[in-house]
Fold this protein.
Amino acid sequence: MDVVLIRWPGERDRLEAARAAGTPRLLLVDAEAEPPTTVDPLEDWMRMPADPSDVQVRVATLARRADGGGFPAVDDDGLLHHRGRWVALSPLETAIARALTERYGAVVGRDLLARRAWPGGMPTRNALDVQMVRFRRRVEPIGLEVRTVRSRGYLLQSLADAA
């Protein structure tokens, strides 16, 4: 899928049309403009002027995301699906997976993971660490990786994107 380059803020209408169509897009933000809030993994921005090689890298990343068969998703049966493969999860792993897939490619804090996995009360630090080791082993066969971001939390990403 082709990535659309959109000048911001001059091409707001094109941006809305691309968002509605689900087209991957790179916003080229004018030097003095405030960038828009982006939460869609198919949207990124960079301030202009930018080095052409940097633009090329961002376009390639967006294209890979768009062509990668989608993002991981957890269904109602506790199955984690990613790029045509799936793995069955325990109820605790399902809660962790939902928190990580909702913010796929971004850091999820330890506190949020603990609240989602243990809604009745906070576990010990070691309990979350043990569950994350098990979760890492569970998701690796379907092409996912959990990275630890020191002092912040965990990040779920595709092994293909990490390479």
Summary: The CA atoms of residues 41 and 65 lie 8 Å apart.
